[in-house]
Amino acid sequence: MASTGQYPTVHQALARSLFDNGVETIFGLTGDANMFMVRSYIRECGGTFVAASHEAGAATMALGYSSLSGKPGVCSVTHGPAMVNTATALAHGVKASLPMVLLCGDTDAEDREHTQSIAQRPFVVAAGAGFEQLRSPKTVGQDVARALRRAQLERRPVALNIPYAFDWQEAEAFRPVRVHIPESHGIVSASDDLDDAIGIIATAKRPVVLVGRGAVSPRAKTAIGRLAARIEAPVCTTLKAKDLFRGEEFNLGICGTVSTPVAVETLTDSDCIIAFGASLNKFTLSRGAFARGKRIIQVNLEPTELGRNVEVTAGLVGDPASVADLIVHWLDAADAAPSGYRSEELRRKLAAASIEPFTRADTQEGTVDFLRALGRLNQILPADRILVTDVGRFMLKAWTLIAVQGPGSFVMTNDFGSIGLGLSHAIGAAFAAPGRPAVLVCGDGGFMHGGLIEFNTAVRHRVNLIVVVCNDAAYGAEHNTLLERQLEPDTILFDWPDLASAAIALGGAGVTVAAESDWEAAEAAIKNRSGPLLIDVKLDFQRMPEF
To answer: Could you give the CA distance from residue 283 to residue 207 in angstroms, rounded to a whole number?
Structure first.
C-alpha cells in the first residue's frame, strides 16, 4: 500500500525513531533497501551518515563508536551480500560485549528468485548476535526501540531485519518509542561473602587491588583508590582499563601477560587479589600464574561474572564504588591495620622501571628499531589522543609503551583475533569523540587487510586520524611460528606498495620513517596535518618481539 501522506512512510518512521532515541550518527553503505531511510535521516532529521567503502568497515565503525561512547553504535546496510559482509563485525561485537544495532534490509518475500535473497537470520544467530524482525509498518517505533534496548541490556549487536516491501508503506499511527535504561547501583547487603571478604582483606599481608573496565568511572576510581590506600595495596588494571592510575604512586600498570617485571614480581608474591569490574580471564591472570596460592575477592555488578573464569574465595555483587566504600567503613570500624605492602622498596623499583632504556638494536638498512620507534611515537603523538590498536605481534609493546589519558581513550580490537578491524574502529571512535585525534597503531598486514579501503572513507569525512603502520613486510605471528619449526618464512613475507604514497593517492597525507633522521619529518607531519595522516614505520621483521 503506497503512502497517502497522512502518516510517515516506514523509511521516514525508521529514521525518526532512531534520531529521537539519540542516534546522531549512522555508519553504513547504501543500497536499494536502505537508501531512502538514510536520505530521510540526513535531510529530515539532521543526522550524520558516514558512508563506508565496505559493509564490513561500516559495521566495525559502529563498534568503534560504541567502544568509546558507551552507547549503541548503529549501522545500516542493504540485503543479501551486504548483510553477510557484516558477519565478522557481528562476531567481534559479541565477543567484545559491545552494543550495536545493525539495520539490514531484506528482499521481498514474494520474489523467491531475487538474486540477493538469503535467509539472513541464521547468519546473525551464528555470529552470536541478537535478531529482531520489523513486524509490520504499524510497529516501527516499538521494533526499533526493542532492538536498541536489547543491544544495551545484552551488551551485544542486535540485527533489525527490515523487509524492503515495507519501505514506502505508511507507518500508521506512528509514534517514536524512547528507550530508557535505568542506572544500576546494586548495594551489597549483609552476607557471609561480605563478612569473608572483609576478614580476608583485614588479614592480608600482601594485597593487590585490580580494576577492570567495569569499574573505571570517576566515582569508582576514587572509591577504589581510597580502599587501596587504606590497606596500603598496590593497584593495577586489566588491559581494557589501561592507564586508569597513570601517574599515581604504587601503580603496577597492566595486570596480565604484558605486565612489567616489577608487576609480575609483586603480583606473584601477593597473597590476595581484590578485583573490581574485571572478569579475571586467563590473560589478566597470566594464564593462572597470578591466581596461584591466593585468596581472590571479585566484585562485579553482574552476577554472571563472578567465578566465571576462575574460582574465587568471595564474590560480591554490587556497584564497585559502593562496595569499596562499604569495605573501608568496616575496616575503619574494626580498626584494621594496613598491610604495609606499599613499601619504600616497591616505590624505588617502580620508579626505576619507569625509565625505559630503549637501547638501539641492530636492524637492517632502511629500517628503525621497533621499541625506540614506539618510545618516539609516545612523545610526538598528540597528548589527547585516542589510541586504537589492530591485531598483530606489534600490539603487545604498543599497549605498554604508548600511553593514554585513561581507559576512555583506549580501544583494542583483538576480541575475535581478526587483523584489519583497527582502522574502521578508529573512524568510529573519532566520531564518538569529536575534536580529539584517533591514533591507530596497526601492522602492515592489518592495514592492507581492512585499512586501505577505509582510509579514503576517513579522507572523505575529514576524520581526525593518524595511522601508524608497523611495517615489517610480514605476517608476524606466522613468522614466529614458522621459525619455531625451523621452516623458511617466505610464504608470509610481502612486497607491499609504498604505503605513504598510497595514502596520498587516497587523498590523505603520508610519510615514511626508514631511518632515525626521518622522525623530524614525521613529527612535523603530525603537527601540520589537515586530514588523515599515515606514518609508514619501516621495521626489520627479524628484530620484532615475539607474539
So the answer is: 20
The 10s digit of each residue's pLDDT in 167-195 is 999 999 898 899 988 877 666 767 888 99
For 81, the 3-state DSSP assignment is helix
User: What is d(CA 192, CA 360) in angstroms, rounded to the nearest whole number?
Assistant: 55
- H or E, element range at 361: none
Longest alpha-carbon distance in the chain = 79
- Record the cell numbers describing residue 406, joined without a space: 585513561
Tell me the three state secondary structure of residue 452: helix
Specify the length of the chain in residues: 547
CB 274 within 8 A of CB 207: yes
- Quote the pTM value: 0.94
- pLDDT recorded at residue 1: 45
Asked if 155 and 130 count as a contact pair (C-beta separation under 8 A), the reply is: no
| Cβ neighbours for 421, distance < 8 A, ≥ 6 positions apart | 60, 63, 88, 89, 92, 390, 391, 413, 446, 450
The dihedral through the CA atoms of 253, 254, 258, 264 has a sign that is positive
Rounded to the nearest 5 degrees, what angle is found at the Cα of 534, between the Cα atoms of 530 and 536? 150
**For residue 504, which phi and psi values (nearest 5 degrees)?**
-65, -40
Q: Which three cell numbers stand for residue 475?
A: 605476517
Give every CB contact of residue 242 below 8 A, 6+ residues apart in sequence.
Answer: 254, 399, 404, 407, 410
Query: What is 222-275 written as a DSSP string?
Result: HHHHHHHHHHT--EEE-GGGTTTTTT-TTEEEE-STT--HHHHHHHHH-SEEEE
Number of other CB atoms surrounding residue 316 within 10 Å = 23
Given strand 410-412, what is the order of strands in its sheet? 410-412, 386-389, 438-443, 465-471, 533-538, 509-513
What would the pLDDT profile of 358-372 be if each residue is shown by its tens digit? 556 677 889 999 999
114-128, 137-151, 173-187, 237-251: range with lowest mean pLDDT: 173-187
DSSP state of 130: E
Full strand arrangement of the beta sheet holding 48-51: 48-51, 25-28, 73-77, 100-106, 157-163, 130-133
The dihedrals phi and psi of 236, each to the nearest 5 degrees, come to: -155, 170
The torsion angle over the Cα atoms of residues 172, 173, 174 and 180, rounded to 10 degrees, is: -140
Task: Give the span between the Cα atoms of 183 and 185, in whole angstroms.
Answer: 7
- Residues contacting 63, CB < 8 A, separation 6+: 73, 89, 92, 93, 96, 98, 100, 157, 421, 424, 425, 428
pLDDT tens across 440-481, in order?
999 999 999 999 999 999 999 999 999 999 999 999 888 888
| Residue 436: all three cell numbers together | 580529539
Distance CA 2, CA 37 (A): 16
